[in-house]
Write a structure and sequence with these properties.
Two copies of one chain form a homodimer.
Chain A lengths: L16 H5 L22 E9 L2 H15 L3 E8 H10 L13 E9 L5 H14 L5 E4 L3 H12 L1 H8 L6 E3 L5 H15 L5 E6 L4 E6 L7 H6 L1 H15 L15 H7 L2 H14 L12
Chain lengths: 293, 293
């Protein structure tokens, strides 16, 4: 039993073993406790629903918001216009606070330490973004209910997506600076592999993490798509991610499903390093065998 | 050759190998490149020199400053009154901006995203700290030259210390919440082992990292102290750090000098894990042999 619950911010007394166990999916050992780093809760939130013309604008808006708030950006969620349309169609009791033909929306949530400053700071961020040509239009939540509606629109995307039908799903990340390029090129890639497919894209731009889901082309049954053409879509999307130095599993992990694909896509040296560590720490392969590696 | 320069904020495709190489002092491989995470430069800094009655007040002041600024604290440096006295005595062209009999000073540097807000935010932080009884007195730098003087006082501590004479030095950390307890108990510990020794303590409270240096008692030669009684002081200080779940090397590393002590103080399971990783990645022990492990 190793106790790694030190809670130290600085410690230079050896290898940072803890990081190896995080995300290992139990293949190196069983984690029985965690030590959390806490941050003060912001005194107030200012929430806005912003129409942007492109993912590039969204990434630039994020950089502007971080710089102007000293990093007090609690959430920055990108939603495609198509995904928003599905929410408005399939989820009860929602409406678009900002009717716009712009192809993308951003949910911008600032968590501000000084409650009196939350609104003025949001206004200044949006004014600067407007001036820089990064924003088509924006609605600022005037009260808690309006802020909750904006969050509901974002959080209902997976529900609306299930109501819409089957899709192949990708939990990918790229460096933040390449999110816009990924979305542009992925759109072209999908259309060339599966013409007519709809794309339901949403995600955490600040982490470079996009949930990029692709529905069947019109007329093709969902199950048939997922077992056939959809596999080729996934291969093409993951090829693009790999080319952009991204990850084919930003949040969800490898498990059994992506094990072979991960081994195939990762550099041989990295897989060998991981296997060497696994053999060293679990020579009898007793820890969650058959996962990850 | 493994390329770990991914720059991804989220990646769940295996073990986080990069963290293992950081701080391994070359014992697992040679690092030839680094990928840096950058933050926007604050638009303005507000710097204050603050007199506090105890390390406990300093830790509480740090928590208050972080909460009131949304984390926009660029530096929070604690300096003991004794260390400050050495600087005033041995370093030319400095003066104390805040004559005070308080036993500790804090250099508080806020890096604020909105230049116009830097001064008002500093004023509000200090007013709230005064009201909470955390601050004895404070001077806010009115211009760049005054801010530089405050930084010079802090940065001259190691120079003044060398001018003062030999000392045994400790680069230790504890959880931030135990810094005050460490300083209180370490003072008692040192006096019981080496009565009359002066303590030169300074450091980065936000990281729980204190440079805790102890000079010879009056009348004892520096070299004699460092080779004799000073070793017992170090042992006692490190015993206390270990008891507080701290680190005997926060920044400086293990190298050859602390290798045996580190192996003795760390839990056996942790040393065994580290050795297993070392054997797996460097079976012939060619990478910086004799260091760390």
């Amino acid at each position: 039993v190793w106790n790694g619950l030190s809670g130290l911010r600085k410690d230079n007394t050896g290898y940072d073993l803890k990081q190896m166990f995080i995300g290992a999916e139990g293949t190196l050992g069983v984690i029985t406790g965690a030590c959390l780093k806490l941050f003060p809760q912001p005194a107030a939130h200012a929430v806005a629903w912003v129409a942007v013309a492109s993912p590039e604008q969204a990434v630039d808006l994020l950089a502007l918001a971080k710089a102007r708030t000293g990093g007090q950006v609690s959430a920055f969620e990108l939603v495609s216009g198509f995904a928003l349309g599905l929410v408005l169609q399939h989820v009860p009791d929602v409406r678009d606070p900002l009717p716009s033909s712009a192809p993308w929306r951003v949910l911008l949530d600032l968590g501000i330490a000084d409650a009196a400053m939350a609104e003025p700071i949001m206004e200044r961020v949006l004014a600067a973004a407007m001036e820089a040509g990064l924003v088509e239009d924006a609605a600022v939540a005037g009260n808690q209910a309006q802020a909750q509606l904006m969050w509901k629109l974002r959080e209902s995307v997976p529900i609306a997506e299930r109501a819409y039908g089957k899709a192949v799903k990708h939990d990918v990340s790229t460096p933040v600076s390449r999110v816009a390029e990924f979305l542009l090129r992925a759109g072209e890639t999908v259309q060339s592999v599966s013409p007519g497919s709809a794309i339901i894209a949403f995600g955490h731009v600040g982490d470079g993490n996009i949930h990029y889901n692709v529905s069947p082309p019109p007329g093709l049954d969902g199950d048939v798509f997922v077992e056939g053409l959809g596999l080729r879509v996934t291969e093409a999307v993951h090829d693009l991610v790999t080319q952009l130095d991204g990850s084919i599993s930003a949040e969800h992990g490898i498990g059994r499903l992506k094990r072979e694909e991960n081994a195939r896509r990762k550099a041989g040296a990295e897989i060998e390093l991981m296997r060497a560590v696994k053999r060293a720490l679990d020579p009898d392969n007793r820890m969650n065998p058959g996962r990850v590696l």
